[in-house]
Prior knowledge:
alpha+beta
Amino acid sequence: MTVSRRDFLTTAVVGSVSLGLARPSSNAQDSAKPTSHSPTGKRPIIVCAHNGFNYLDDAYAFLAAGGDTLDAAMRVIKGPEDDPNDTSVGLGGLPNEEGVVELDACCMHGPTRRAGSVGGVRNIKNVSFVSKAVMEHTGHVMLVGEGAERFAVAMGFPRENLLTDHSRKIWLLWKEYHSTQDWWGPGLADPHWQPPDTKPQADLHQELLQERFRRLEEQAADLGIVPELRKDAVHKVLFPPTGTIHCSALNAKGEISGCTTTSGLAYKLPGRCGDSPIIGAGCYTDQDVGSAGATGSGEENIKVAGAHTIVENMRHGMSPQDAGMDALKRIVRNYNGDMNKLRFVDMTYYILRKDGVYAGVSLWEAYAPDKLHQIAVHDGTKRSEKTVAMFKGPSQDFPPPPIVPADGASD
Length: 411
């Protein structure tokens, strides 16, 4: 029996109960213990997305020794950009629907009040540094596509193939499975969009789900994906990851900078740019106030200018946590509180005020049933902290994936 991705998704169980999705809390403060909040603030300090955790020690030592704040932040995000096993950033990032890796990044240097950005860049690994080069060596703020790539080469950045063998095989597995309509057609914001059926399906559909998962694993094996990575590859086909890293750094003098870099939404339409290269959405830094950045549903963050909104909220007296929660409420407002749509949206904000007070907030507690949203912090002590969440439970990926039964994976 041949089943297209679109047909398969329409028969899949994607109910909130199946994912362990809890009802939204009426009070955002009740959704999670506010562990990611420093009431007094210390500096120097670095705050970043959790995939920067392993790179904090070197960056903090550099910052504490008097290093520039933007250079310190880039020491963090360069790690994931260089890591071929991080499929959400830089080398090895999951490609667009045509199998091409396209990268986005931006940076803001608080002390000199400058900014740089690049979008849709191919063949250049460290696009965060290209955005910094745009800031330092041009009169522009943003370069995109082929022009950004040519500029990078002119500045001495080497062209290289960013699609690793592993990422290529995951993309091929996705092509075996997907419908070309995955990111076509009406999105969540369309007034005619209808949520998928959330009612339990018949045993026949459960058998179909199990068989499809087994076939994906068999196809992964045929593509040469090693056994220990097959389940992860299948997960990245069923749950297309977004992925990004943001980092903000503040020194002892009160100078602050921020940067964000990403390979964007997996299997996206060619040319798609999310929020990461958008000054004021994926990253915003104001030397007088603080810095903020984002990971998650880029299209939703662009619409609320999330990072800028947060910094402006802090300028007007809000705490970092309240400033972030307000930005999340604006996303909720854009969907009139419709949980049938909001369960397919997620957003995490990383917020650092000039006095060293920080917060990490997220729309949902987790991005998978057993994977909490976390931020990484180093202020002399390196640690991970869970975010303060607006809604309990995990978000769901969009396009909505099927629920894979626990016994659906082969050994």
